[in-house]
Amino acid sequence: MRLRKVKNLEKRMERLEHLLLKKKTIRFKEVFGNGNPVIAEFGIGRGEFLLEMARRRPEKNFFGVERVDSVLLQAMEKVEKETNIRYLLANVEDLEGVIPENSLSGLFLNFSDPWPKKKNRKRRLTHREYLELYDIWLQENSQVQLKTDSPILFTSSIEEISQSGHLLEDVTLNIEESPAYEDNIRTEYEERFTAQGHPIYALRFRSKKVKS
Ligand SMILES: C[S@@+](CC[C@H](N)C(=O)[O-])C[C@H]1O[C@@H](n2cnc3c(N)ncnc32)[C@H](O)[C@@H]1O
């Protein structure tokens, strides 16, 4: 994500405080004022995808996490009347204890940073340590969806997901040709890569609970 210097960042963030959650244990029912299912996206960038989801699915709540403040601000400034969307400025790796157990009903990972060097593979959002966290945060059998243009991230995700005992679904090397994604909403990065002629890879898997 190319970073632009943003003027009056703090003031503009303050104005949108009602959309921004604090980095402490989140009580989603209180936040949204209802018990509707909560769907998350980690690494929302400028947020078009999640906002479009919120517009199409008013019966669900949407929760976006982004670690760069100037980027998150641009996402929040797009919100108009939607009441079913909230944001958190954070790195996903710091969210243990912030997102409650079994509080999420779905998760999107869209064009997550691929971290191509092997020494950085633990930072990929589909590394097994993240998958363990997702299994804690997600209700059992919730859907996680990954889209990427990166063969490295895609291949390593398939390995991590299957080696950690999750069942892969709807794996495709070209989202445009897969009926499983016919209602696909393109993200900002996806628009860019598609225009450049790159195929978009996608997969889904289901969260599981460790049985004691
Ligand atoms: C390549 S961009 C993709 C943005 C958007 N999802 C899209 O598809 O257009 C990745 C975004 O994820 C954010 N990000 C990467 N790792 C993150 C992490 N660990 N926690 C929170 N945000 C993260 C980056 O700051 C960046 O905005």
Describe this structure in words.
There is one protein chain. This protein is an alpha/beta fold and 212 residues long. The chain has a single domain (9-17, 33-206), classed as Rossmann fold, CATH 3.40.50.150. Helix content is 28%, strand content 21%. It contains 7 helices and 7 strands; from the N terminus they run ααβαβαββαβαβαβ. It has helices at 9-15, 28-32, 48-56, 69-76, 128-137, 151-163, 188-195, and strands spanning 38-42, 61-66, 85-89, 104-110, 138-148, 168-172, 201-206. Strands 3-2-1-4-5-7-6 form a 7-stranded mixed sheet, sandwiched between helices. The longest helix is centred in the last third of the chain and has 13 residues, at 151-163. S-adenosylmethionine binds at residues 1, 42-45, 65-68, 71, 91-93, 110-111, 113, 187-190.
Give a brief rundown of this model.
The chain is of the alpha/beta class. It has helices spanning 9-15, 28-32, 48-56, 69-76, 128-137, 151-163, 188-195; strands at residues 38-42, 61-66, 85-89, 104-110, 138-148, 168-172, 201-206.
How many helix segments?
Answer: 7
Estimate the helix proportion, in percent.
25-40%
Question: Could you tell me how far the N terminus lies from the C terminus, measured between alpha carbons in angstroms?
Answer: 41 Å
The second-level CATH architecture is: 3-Layer(aba) Sandwich
Give the full name of the CATH homologous superfamily.
Vaccinia Virus protein VP39
